[in-house]
Amino acid sequence: MTTSYIPGFGNHIATEAVPGALPIGRNSPQRPAYGLYAEQLSGTAFTAPRHENRRSWLYRLRPTAEHPPYEPYEAAVRFAAGSHDAPLPPNRLRWDPAPMTPPGTDWIDGMTTMLVNRDPADLEGVAVNVYACNRNMERVFVDADGELVFLPQSGRLTILTELGRIDIAPGQIALVPRGVRFRVELPDGEAAGYVAENHGSLFRLPDLGPIGANGLGNPRDFETPVAWFEDRDEPTQVVQKFLGSLWTMTLDHSPLDVVAWHGNLAPWRYDLSRFNTINTVSFDHPDPSIFTLLTSPSDVPGRANADLVLFPPRWMVAEDTFRPPWFHRNVMSEAMGLITGAYDAKAEGFRPGGLSLHNLMAGHGPDLASWQGASHAALNPHRIEGTMAFMVESCWPYRPTAHALAHAQLDYDAVWKDFPKAKLP
Fold it and tell me: Where, by residue number, does homogentisate bind (predicted)?
């Protein structure tokens, strides 16, 4: 099946799967063509400033208001499992890649929440999840708590959403907006990766400031799917995440039945190789903010509710510098994952599919082996190849879930052991 995409981040898009299904002008929304139902999906408040307002009009076979009551989802899952309520030590933490789940596990049951930092009801904060699954979803999922960013680490995903179909592989990412229903299929039979769940203001491209008009993520490289729909009258389970818990009900039809839509709230995909990395070409080491692909601002200017930061292949060209990230403490909390290759500040123990956490004011930086290598490296132009790491940085401290605390590496602090003491004259 060929999938078509429309480029542009946040553009107003109009697309229809059946010619004539999309109303034009005053034909909308009183009597849409073919008896379709008009429904607005709002991702922001109605009165948000025009440049921040995100919403789309959907024209569908049935209204989403038609459904039975939700009941608690009874299956044992680790998705939305809640944070650990005991006092949280200020320790640095790291995890190995999640093991593959038992046969017959779909994306919902294969999701594990690792880190959370706010109650979704606050409309702030972010959660970091990992997934490992080996079965196509036969049901539909919808997240009322936040928008979801998929970061595959192994195996391709086909995400069938109300607004279109998105195919992604490791090295690509996709976003599904809050409230959009979808199903995940696995073209390779199994898949693993990460999902960032943003409960706060919508992810957007960061302002570039002195960088100017170009660089980092360019709007035209974000691809939105064209309209696609299912006309299927058979029982379909719908699982919804709401205020941190999972709920379920069953429809007598597929809810992925949007025949046409227009607006600027939509799923999208992005190829990480198109990120235009900015780096130093003189001396010193620039702040990691220059690697920001997406940002979710908080109420404090310059302090992000969540930033999605990339560390891709790139040239390192500078003199009188220490090229890996320096030793640092800061007020932002950093959750880092590795999609492929190695991370330049860690020699071992941080593998693709793994995760690390450095909460606010936790001292961190390169491990001993990386520090020794960087301290004696010839500062010639050098290109870092074969890697892709990312960070979900937040102004709110992360709380690991009980599952995450029980499965953390026991010896992570040892990577900073045995640094030699400086010798004064």
Answer: 343, 364
Question: Is 343 marked as binding a ligand?
Answer: yes
Residue 12, annotated as binding a ligand: no
Predicted pLDDT at 316? 86
What pLDDT shows up at residue 359?
Answer: 96
Contact 260, 22 (CB under 8 A): yes
What amino acid is encoded at 203 in this protein? F
Please state the separation of Cα 266 from the chain's center in Å.
Answer: 15
How many Cβ atoms sit within 10 Å of the Cβ of residue 219? Answer: 11
382 belongs to an annotated ligand binding site: no
Cβ–Cβ under 8 Å, residues 202 and 44: yes
CATH fold, domain 68-256, is Jelly Rolls (2.60.120)
CA distances from 183 to 75, 241, 394 (A): 18, 14, 28
Residue from 174, 138, 143, 179 nearest 156 by CA: 174
What value does the mean pLDDT of the chain take? 92
Report the CATH architecture of 273-409: Sandwich (2.60)
Six-digit token string for 122: 């606050």
Residues catalogued as catalytic? 285
Question: Is 5 labeled as ligand-binding?
Answer: no
